[in-house]
C-alpha cells in the first residue's frame, strides 16, 4: 500500500510539472511572436547561427502570434531567407522591420538588383515580354 501511495504522489507531482511546463511554454510562445503594428500579421526573430552560417532573420506569419501560414522570411541584410528571394513585402512590414534594424530594400523586393546600378560590362540584360 505504501508503494502505491508513493506512486500516486509521483504521478501527481509529474502532472503538476507537466502543467507548469505547458503554461511556461505558452507564455514564452507569446513573447516569441510579435505582432506587426497596423496589420494582422506577426513575426518571430531568430538569432544568427555561426554553425549554419545563417544571419539573424525574421519569419513573418499571416496571423497574430505566429498563426496561419508563413508569408516569407528575411535576413538582417534584407535578403530572402528560406526560399523567400524575390518576394515583394508590404510597406508596413518593411517599416516595422527597418525599425528593428533590418536593411529592407527601397523597392521592397527581397534580394533584388537595382536596374540603374547594373554595369553593362558585367551583365547582359534581357527583358521578356509576355505579349510576344
TrEMBL record:
Domain of life: Bacteria
Protein name (Swiss-Prot/TrEMBL): FHA domain-containing protein
Source organism per UniProt: Undibacterium seohonense
